């Protein structure tokens, strides 16, 4: 899967466009300019982490903490003047994180916000066994995990949900995040510039 990555570097076109028209104001900031710019980038990248988390959780019923742990930030410094956001680690979580319930035919969960609770079905990529009348359920909850008995495994396996990164691979999501990143960057830039000019009495 192609995992989107958000990167803020002072060589980006939208940044240069703004800076080109504010050369005088930026000269007034003087030697504090690198510190100011690194603050802008870091505030923006933190805001994008929140935005991505909200976008994923709008579609998936994944707990916020699980989503946030998959988002890695590399912060800017006055020397590097570069910040980035990427997705790392596990991008799917155990089905036990989707509030599973025991039901007559096994276990029900709610993964997508757009749908109600569904019962885990037999078959699928794990070849989950069917649950027959008067037989032990093929799916069950034990020790805080959701397990499934499968065709090819001698012991039950722990089940995981789908990757929530599919949200970020949609064209509308990518376009939204790009526009949001630019808007946040510019808003944070002008806010920090006004602060520095006021502080210096300009």
Give me a quick take on this structure.
This protein has 202 residues and is α+β, with helices and mostly antiparallel strands. It has helices at 13-20, 23-29, 33-59, 64-68, 171-199; strands spanning 6-9, 71-74, 82-87, 101-103, 106-109, 118-119, 139-142, 145-148, 157-158.
Q: Identify the overall geometry.
A: elongated
Quickly give the structural class: alpha+beta
Widest sheet, order of strands: 1-3-2
E-strand count: 9
Uncertain residue segments: none
> Could you tell me how far the N terminus lies from the C terminus, measured between alpha carbons in angstroms?
50 Å
Largest sheet, strands/sense/barrel: 3 strands, antiparallel
Task: Tell me the count of domains.
Answer: 2
Instruction: State Rg.
Output: 24 Å
What is the beta-strand fraction? 15-25%
Helical content (DSSP H or I, runs of 4+): 25-40%
How do the strands and helices of this protein lay out in sequence?
Elements (H helix, E strand, L loop, with lengths): L5 E4 L3 H8 L2 H7 L3 H27 L4 H5 L2 E4 L7 E6 L13 E3 L2 E4 L8 E2 L19 E4 L2 E4 L8 E2 L12 H29 L3
Antiparallel strand pairs: 1-3, 2-3, 4-5, 5-6, 7-8, 8-9
Describe the structure.
With 202 residues, the protein is an alpha+beta fold. It has two domains: 6-91 and 163-199, no CATH class; 95-158, no CATH class. It has five helices and nine strands; from the N terminus they run E-H-H-H-H-E-E-E-E-E-E-E-E-H. It has helices at 13-20, 23-29, 33-59, 64-68, 171-199; strands spanning 6-9, 71-74, 82-87, 101-103, 106-109, 118-119, 139-142, 145-148, 157-158. The strands form three sheets. Strands 1-3-2 form a three-stranded antiparallel beta sheet, covered by helices on one side. Strand 5 (106-109) and strand 6 (118-119) form a beta hairpin. Helix 3 (33-59) packs antiparallel against helix 5 (171-199). It is elongated. The termini are far apart. The mean pLDDT is 83.
